[in-house]
Fold these 3 entries.
Entry 1:
Amino acid sequence: MKIRSGGHDYEGLSYVSDVPFFIVDMFNFHSINVSIEDESAWVEVGATLGEVYYRIAEKSNVHGFPAGVCPTVGVGGHFSGGGYGNMMRKYGLTVDNIDDAKLIDVHGRILDRKSMGKDLFWAITGGGGVSYGVILSYKIKLVRVPPKVTVFRVQRFYDQNALDLAYLWQRRADKWDNDLFMRMIIDVVNSTTRTPKKTIRVSFFTLFLGDVNRLLSLLNGSFPELGLERKDCIEMTWVESVLYYTSFPNGTRVEALLSRVPQSLTYLKRKSDYLQKPMSKEGLEFIFKKMIELQTPTSLTFNPYGGRMSEISPSAKPFPHRAGNIAKIQYATNWNEAGVEAANHYLNLTRVLYDYMTPFVSKSPRLAFLNYRDLDIGITHNGKLSYFEGKVYGIKYFKKENFNRLVKIKTKVDPENFFRNEQSIPVYPAGRK
């Protein structure tokens, strides 16, 4: 059985299998009940993030929710896997702002937080829901946002000091004011005006929970090398910033968030890493060079940590990646050519770049993010060896202590491993508790 809410699982585990299967599609379970009075909302798992944001904004321009920026992503997988957005330095993850849930367990019972117990509630707020049951809905805590926020996207090329800016960003981005989220994206672009024709571009994509004057004051003091100017910045409402971050044209009406059709459909591969020590200039230069040599369409997106993320215990939720991380890295490769040959080509390019990054990222284990699902780091066949197979990827996603707790809960609530997929939480081997 496959359980699907939005269908955005990067490896397709909610709708693809090598064996006969059926889908429990939650797509039409998408009601959203917002209560500004107690600053909460009940959200069914088939709702999209865009629908959630629209329904909140419909009732208040000073409330939001710290989830992702892709509006067609379904709530079910995003929330249960510890989804994040560009307010995580201020408010943490989705799962840090969930008060309740409703779930159908393996016995067909509908449980809420009280009746499922604290362990199962803990597991489905960051450990992935599909290993434990069919989640119906979540109760979320709304967060406060200012009436106006500020956004900007500043790009610098290699011959415009991009190397120095990337070097400095690593040392500062996790230490800035919690109202500031500045994402750094490194990619290779074709240039008609530069030599060589392929060059590195470093982009700084930013949401600031405040006005432009405070932002300029903050960055002119702590990141003057960027050379940010007032003309680079745009003030808008928080819900409009979601459209901006998703690259909708300026002036797009917020009703666009209600569309359940993705803006583009491409073949893709995603991988993840955690940056725990700043890369040297030599290290960055090495990666820049390799990206150009590979002529890969892969971009590296560095999402800054610090702030609230460093204050929450790594055991508070199954998601363990808290203090000690400078940034989460996403490897994103998209292509349009159909067929196995093209897929293998682009998959290989992504894996080679991932290998080049090995010296610069977390080690023993090399950590990964569950919602950037990646079958390269291990799979289970859900047989007698499932615990040992699951441990390979499970410790990378959750670290040892959290993984063991997830397995213990799984063994208790679903001992026959009914809810399973290629990267689900396994049960303990027979005889072990």
Note: The longest strand covers residues 180-190.
Entry 2:
Amino acid sequence: MKLLHKDIEKDYAGQVTLMPEEAEDMWHTYNLLQVGDSLRASTIRKVQTESSTGSVGSSRVRTTLTVSVEAIDFDSQACQLRVKGTNIEENQYVKMGAYHTIELELNRKFTLAKKIWDSVVLDRIEQACDPAQKADVAAVVMQEGLANVVLVTPAMTLLRAKVEVTIPRKRRGSCTQHDKALERFYEAVMQAILRHINFDVVKCILVASPGFVKDQFISYLFREAVRQDSKVLLENRPKFMLVHSSSGHKYSLKEILSDPAVTSRLSDTKAAGEVKALEDFYKMLQHEPDRAFYGLAHVEKANEAMAIDVLLISDELFRHQEVATRSRYVRLVDSVRDNGGTVRIFSSLHVSGEQLNQLSGLAAILRFPIPDLSEPEEDSSSDEE
């Protein structure tokens, strides 16, 4: 994402002009947009024209519209973002107040205006525009006959390819069918890696499986790389790292990212930081339950006591439609930071974020135990809705 212009007043009203450069930027934009904002962007509009003879035709014209945002639709698989709203600026093709849906496009700038730019939104822009925050981890999670090729970016886990091949069982006295199918499977996974992994950006490729599938695949991969003289694979051999996983399904990614060997290798990536924070929270909940709490009521109580060391919060909470509820979460984040605590905002498109959402999207690790916090609040822990 490129920040082209920023104009925010002292009262935090104002606008920014941004240009999304890659698919993940659409996810960041989705988290920046709220109902009531105004969005100015280039879009295509179908216009009816009437000729001098009276015949009516229609044509598609490109125009720049400013709409007041009413609905936001994000497709996480295609990374497409559509914003529906009413036109609020004079335009030769679109009447004032007419509805239009803008589909934001890569490498086309847009301007977003808000009545209030809070700290969480400004942080999101900073993170999105930081060139270091890119998809620097890829993973191939596999078992015999099934492989998922996944990109782990700072904001989301993107499934790039799923390879499924039926592998017949070994027969007594003959393994040819089994071996041929296995070879076809490995070949398909190899092609998926070459197609979907950008070796210029990715710093580490995790290959995970139960048993010896990963080892057999890696030896096949580099045997083929030598045979086909694939320079890209041979030059990037040190980036491949073998890890154990319990299955070849995408959900095994959480277990892989929390492996200590992987964590130390990925120590500079946000995804590994989130997984570690969640791991620490669960350990604390198990061993010192008076220092680990979740749910809005409990976490706010702990914050009043200035006890929060690490706040774990899902970005889903900041997409709340009610301004008052959203402001409550923003105040909590600002307060924890002011008190010297660390705030980790989890992406709901990450495996760790999905898990945090099961804990109402909010959890905290405390500096010191607060023994009686959970007792009287039993009923109010659900009042974040």
Note: Residues 376-385 have pLDDT under 50 and may be disordered.
Entry 3:
Amino acid sequence: MITSKSVTRACVIDGRGRGGGGAESGSGGARSRAALRPQPPAMADAPPEVLELNVGGVHYATTRDTLLREPDSLPAAALNDPDHPRDARGRIFFDRDGVLFRYVLDYLRDGGLVLPECFREHKRLAREAKHYRLAGLEHAVRDADPRPPNRERGCITVGYRGSFAFGRDGLADVKFRKLSRILVCGKVTLCRDVFGETLNESRDPDHGLADRYTSRFFLKHSFIEQAFDMLQEQGFKLTASCGSGTAGGAAELKPGVDSEENRWNHYNEFVFVRE
């Protein structure tokens, strides 16, 4: 039998149920509203901070900020140009010297240039810097070049004859070497440029001709180390050397020569090159 109390009780129960269902609907609505909020971009869609480059087949990794360090440079322009060439893996491609690019990248990272002591490709690196539109790097490379732009290239050969001065105990007591003369062979202009006033040209018959070669110059001093220092200061590098020696018997000594040291003569040559 249905009474007013039972109807009221049923309505209360149904109202609670609807309230629970409304709460569920409310939570579902909250989730729907959260889904409509703008979400941060996924990592795959965000621009990468670490970039890979392909320079003449040599691969490099750097950051976006490094490539943008010089806004007017070619690397910065390539980064902002969607039509710039890329390789099969999507790396920015430069058809240039891949080995020398390491110095270009170092300059973009640090703003300075540090080259190894044996570096000898200043002209090539300056050309790369000009191509990448890095004027600061180009000037730094030219300032770091130890060779003046108009300095003459060439080869100079230095040779000397000498003997060893013995002590009282003969060979077991060699005191020092004695150099009779240091010979200089090469182009006349180069020899004069390196040795200056220390060069003796008295044995050279063609004093008036400068654009020629000679093997008749010798130095006014007998210090081979001084000659080497002068060559090094002018940018020459030792590339080859050779030596020979003779040991004669007592019967071979000339009349009037009684010095034991004349039995042990030697001749040495050193080839220096400036590029």
Note: The longest strand covers residues 170-187.
